Automatic annotation (TrEMBL):
Gene3D superfamilies (alphabetical): Luciferase-like domain
Listed NCBIfam families: F420_MSMEG_4879 (TIGR03564)
Organism of derivation: Mycolicibacterium wolinskyi
GO molecular function: oxidoreductase activity, acting on paired donors, with incorporation or reduction of molecular oxygen
Protein name: F420-dependent oxidoreductase
């Protein structure tokens, strides 16, 4: 199993890009071979991934995840190919369906039909990445450029989707290269996510998708305190319907139970349950970002 790290972007640093590159280089020197970057309303995840990929040769860089709203797939394709050229083939594009509450707060509107928008978004990306051209008319997007859409050195671009519902997983299996489920425990991965996405991919003749379990984590000798921290930081997800369904499917009473916490050996053991359930990869998302905590997670990642 390949294990990565969600890079903790430090917005209090004098220069966020310099700090992220330095952090990524330190993680690589510690044995980490894949980092993921979340998209928020501040740092652009695709751009930063490309910059890190260019500065730290050999390090896999990816986004986990860039919401498809309000982004047009033609612009996402341009940004992703640019990042791939900068990273010399080590970039992965992770997308998400988004959530209505942040969209309303950030953009003043929401986008209906999320699964249909995802399908069309992926169909446009596949045409550009696979064929180097696109002529597309859908209900959500029209893409008919009269200029080149392929960037030299910018393909192939692996596409992953943070899909957890059955419809989104089927679309992902048909059109993407894998999924990046967050807070989906081993039971959910093994009994629902893996069979659903694998069946969808097989039905259209695509390769077996990768399933990268994104797991909040903290190496700590005080398990109770770590669980309490996890409960505080993850409480937001218990308000989102899609995550409520995932938590219920896992059969836990609190989202904090899905965090990998404890000693380094305990965190490793918890991560191995995802491999046993059928995940192909995992990525640790730090619950605390002090340097010693990050170093401990890097060590776990390098030795799993």
């Amino acid at each position: 199993m390949s294990t990565g790290i969600v890079l903790a972007v430090n917005l209090s640093a004098p220069n966020v890009v310099d700090d992220a590159i330095a952090q990524a280089r330190s993680a690589f020197d510690a044995g980490v071979r894949q980092i993921w970057l979340a998209q928020r309303f501040d740092v652009d995840a695709i751009a930063l991934a490309g910059l890190i990929g260019a500065a730290v040769p050999g390090l896999g860089v990816g986004t986990s995840v860039v919401p498809i709203n309000p982004r047009h797939p033609l612009l996402v394709a341009s940004a992703a190919q640019t990042a791939q050229a900068a990273a010399h083939g080590n970039f992965s594009l992770g997308l998400g369906l988004g959530s209505h509450a942040p969209e309303q707060q950030g953009f003043g509107t929401v986008w209906p039909n999320p699964v249909e928008r995802l399908r069309e978004h992926l169909e446009v990306l596949r045409a550009i990445f696979d064929d180097g051209e696109v002529n597309y008319r859908g209900r959500e997007f029209t893409v008919e450029p009269e200029w080149p859409v392929r960037i030299p050195g910018g393909t192939p671009v692996p596409i992953y989707v943070a899909a957890m519902g059955p419809k989104a997983l089927r679309v992902t299996g048909e059109l993407a290269d894998g999924t990046l489920p967050y807070l989906a425990g081993p039971r959910t991965v093994g009994e629902f996510i893996v069979p659903t996405i694998n069946d969808a991919a097989a039905a259209v003749g695509r390769p077996v998708p990768r399933v990268t379990a994104m797991v909040p984590a903290l190496v700590s000798d005080d398990v109770d305190a770590a669980r309490q921290l996890a409960a505080q930081q993850l409480a937001f997800y218990e308000t989102i319907p899609s995550y409520q369904k995932v938590i219920a499917r896992e059969g836990v009473s609190s989202v904090a139970e899905l965090a990998a916490v404890g000693s380094a050996d305990q965190v490793r053991a918890q991560l191995r349950t995802y491999l046993d359930a059928g995940a192909t990869d995992a990525a640790l998302s730090p619950l605390r970002t002090e340097q010693s905590d990050l170093q401990a997670l890097w060590d776990v990642t390098a030795t799993l």
